[in-house]
Write a structure and sequence with these properties.
The complex is a heterodimer of chains A (about 300) and B (about 300).
Chain A (H helix, E strand, L loop, with lengths): L1 H17 L2 H36 L5 H5 L1 E3 L4 E4 H32 L3 H16 L2 H15 L6 H25 L3 H9 L4 H12 L1 H17 L2 H6 L14 H4 L5 H11 L3 H37 L1
Antiparallel strand pairs in A: 1-2
Chain B lengths: L1 H26 L1 H24 L1 H6 L3 E2 L7 E2 L2 H32 L2 H16 L2 H19 L8 H25 L3 H9 L4 H12 L1 H17 L2 H6 L16 H9 L7 H32 L1
Antiparallel strand pairs in B: 1-2
Helix pairs in contact in B: 2-13, 4-7, 4-10, 5-7, 6-7, 7-10, 8-9, 10-13, 12-13
Classes of the chains: A mainly alpha (about 300), B mainly alpha (about 300).
Chain lengths: ~300, ~300
Amino acid sequence: MKQPVASPVSTEERDCRKLSPRRRAYEVTMRSLLYLCAGITCALLLFLIGYILYRGLPGLSWEFLTSQESILKKTDGILPAIQNTIYVIIVTLIFIMPLGVGSAIYLTEYASNRKLVTAIEFATETLSGIPSILYALVGMLVFCQFLNLGKTLIAGAFTLVIMTLPTIIRTTQESLKTVPASYREGALGLGAGKWHMIRTIVLPSSIDGIVTGCILAIGRIVGESAVLMFTAGMSTAMQDFFGKGGLFKSSGATLTVALYVYAKERAKYDLAFSVAVVLLVITFGINLCAKVMGKRMKGNKGGEKK
Amino acid sequence: MEPQTKRRSTLKEMIELLMRVIFTVCGFIAIAFVLIITVYLIISGLPAIREIGLVDFLFGTRWASTDKTNPAYGILPFILTSIYGTAGAILIGVPIGFMAAVFLSKVAPPKVAAVIRPAVDLLAGIPSVVYGLVGMMVLVPWIKDTFDLKAGDSLLAAILVLAVMILPSIISVSETALKAVPKEYEEASLALGATPLETYFKVSVHAARSGIAASVVLGVGRAIGEAMAILMVAGNSPNMPGLFRSVKFLTTAIASEMSYSSVGSLQRNALYSIGLVLFLFIMFINVMLNLFLKKDKE
């Protein structure tokens, strides 16, 4: 793959002199456009990261991460937002894991009707294309109003379950497909039932894919704001999770929502930038994890082929 | 002994059957969710449309939901703003993203590509509120100063933010499509005397065109559905779209009024109707996307 790209580059300049002026002009313009656009993309990212760090880092401290906002003590802290984010992630994962993995297992192991599989896959595609503001609307209608949960973190988590379902289904399905058919045939040939085969052979071999799906889902949950703003509330005060009905009735802002509240409603811009730094670090960590898992998956596949 | 093993095997069979049922239910959950969303949006979106009148709702140019004496619920400004905003973002984002994708997949030395690719992934992962925040603090004041306006919150700011936000998806989808072009095509073109760049633009891009089209459609979907980032930079007044005017998109119209409209009021129901209109837009785009991707697979 690299060879045809690498070798013409060295002969290119020789070639260039022989070209007609028109072709040479084409060559030069296109090349400079390519470098320009790639440069713009990189410059954008560098600027974004640099600016956020420049504005946000000064406000960042251990105290900022571990205390709550208090006018009396004159402290600014985002501990409540961090807690809320973790809470939403955990609740969403608890529900999405069995649903998403189960759905993927049905698609790859049980479903026999081709048309049905296409329909389910189309539904999954549709779900991943729906913008978050519509999830916010539906979440509000179904969970907050119809099921009478009110604006609570749990209603937000349920809405996120619908939203992250496609991510989990797709990654699990990909990794289930990489489990060699011979494994399944071997297990079934030894007399194992289908569920037994799935539990002992298929799931353990595709655990990497499931974990990758989880990481990607966490990424989406951390980055989501519109849904949580309308279903989980916007308060930045500390929640009493283990108090009376706390787990089901507490409502509050996650990191992204807190950022929005600080920036748009309270004009505490430096605080908002500090939250942005935290979000950037989390995003970076999630990307890194996903990449490492992806590499592991590829490595395993290669090993099995041998 | 015998009845016991028999019982055990029936128990096993029952577990097998139970798991089959559970997995089947899980399998249909995606369809159920899509149906729930569709049904809820239609049920809650229709009453306001019926009350306002479809034509007045879709083509009315005045939105004054909080005006007590003379309320008006025309969403044409929102629809046009969403279309103009998306078109603007595509006009800026697609050429840059496309060129960057060609660079990454064909021209860039492997080491450079290995640095840029994670950077693009990072760009894709940054939460939209962060884009909104930077847009609000950097772009908006810049627009205000450069064009000498009273306020920089404008359609232009929203277009620029959206352009940056759709860039990663355009780059990664186009890059995947470009990489999948069979090497033989390129080798044949090179052997015929075309320069590498001519080969990339006239052969590779041509071969990957449906994948690239898919990336554009994906970008359209992203741009039309984005709410939070542009809520922070677009100004949120229900004006007809103008590059330097404060505007509301379909998404931000919902987001900005949802928190203070009271349940059951016409204002809130009209917001659901806007959601329904947005949903129809998105479904149309999804179908287009599926068409392109299917073509690509063939």
